[in-house]
What does this fold into?
Amino acid sequence: MLIPLVIAAVVGYLLGAIPFGWIVARAHGINIFEHGSKSPGATNVKRVLGKKAGNTVFTLDAIKGALAAGWPLLIQRVGEARMTENQQSVSWTYKFLDVKLLTPETVIPAAVAGLLFAVLGHSFSCFTRFKGGKGVATSAGGFVVLMPVATLIALAVWLATFYGSRYVSLASIFAAIAMPVAAFFLKQHTLVVILAAVIGAFVIILHRANIKRLLNGTENRFVKKSATADSSVQSS
It folds into this structure.
């Protein structure tokens, strides 16, 4: 059990640590850590550089999470597909140099570990002196792979909250709460429900400054870049 989890954690962290927000901003001649909320997340990139750049970062960050959570499931599919009809009662095993790297029993734990460490890598990237975003896009990408229906419910909550309030931070907080609740009622794997709760709590904790501003009535609403360039903290 330990080897697949260690591999998943390392792969997940390194994927998550890729600072796409910083890379995209640098391609535009901007150090994103010096502008707006100084976050490399998609929302700050969108505020500073516009919709196209922000959406690009969101997509790339989501792909990080999807890959971190999805590779064990992909290996499982390949392993099952290669089994002959006479071997259906025999479990597949992915080996390297006679070492078991993945088995049917470790697929979900490895996927969960991969996504958890991808979010940690995004938020505390070793490539940017352990600075990063809030993990919303990376989490969403991983959860689309692990539990698509619950993710759609959380997305609906995010959209309803955002378009009702124009606060990205509030929408992200409500989506972080909705995710584990939806996962629980949809009877997802226990580890996946726990992961959703842990990442949801992590996202909310990273939004603590936003929560204070929301309570004080000083949080900025999301508006088009043409109206306010280089605005303050929101979520990503």
About this structure: The chain has ten helices and two strands.
